[in-house]
Amino acid sequence: MVVKELDGRALEVLGRVRRAVRLVVESEVMRRDLLDEVANQVVLPQQRWEIARLLRVQSELRAEQARARSGVVTAELETVLGPQEEALRVSERALGERVARLEEYAARVRIADAALRARDALGRNEKYVELLAMTDDVEGVRGLSAGAAELAALLTESVREAVVAGRALRG
């Protein structure tokens, strides 16, 4: 598929798909192999290709519809074009839902990345606990120590949700 074969609407959707895929592929949780490998190595490229293919077909059909409506539109022509346009709208809605699922996966991956960064930062807490201990701030030491279990649970849940969202892409 050649990008210049796409109309403006299709290009916008393709841009959303590319951004979502890039967010997943470049994520830290992916680099650390915390996500579903099949979803990322097989399903993501397949989704991107299938979506691009559908966008090309939709672009062609929108252009066809515009050409058909460029002259006088008779009742007979409207009888033919109406159902065709409805089929195109149904396809666009379904593809929009598919892209939204892909974007949801990317959003969950970003949340998992944030939780991973929080866990990494938590791992550096000891330096700050030592600093507070040197300044005799007992309350501050307790505050830094209290969030460790919560953050570990948050990371686990965030990665689990990202994996579930990735598996949902398989259909």
Q: Key terms for this structure?
A:
0% strand, 7 helices, elongated
Structure description:
- The protein is mainly alpha-helical and 171 residues long.
- It has helices at residues 8-25, 28-31, 37-68, 75-123, 125-134, 138-146, 148-168.
- Helix 1 (8-25) packs antiparallel against helix 3 (37-68).
- The chain starts with 7 loop residues before the first helix and ends with a helix.
- The model has no long low-confidence stretch (mean pLDDT 86).
Total of DSSP H or I helical runs spanning 4+ residues:
7
Average pLDDT works out at 86
The proportion of residues forming helix, as a percent range, comes to over 70%
Strand content: under 5%
Short structural summary:
By secondary structure, the chain is an all-alpha fold. 84% of the residues lie in helices and 0% in strands. The longest helix is centred in the middle third of the chain and has 49 residues, at 75-123.
List the SSEs and their pairings.
Elements: H1 8-25, H2 28-31, H3 37-68, H4 75-123, H5 125-134, H6 138-146, H7 148-168
Helix pairs in contact: 1-3, 1-4, 3-4, 4-7, 5-6
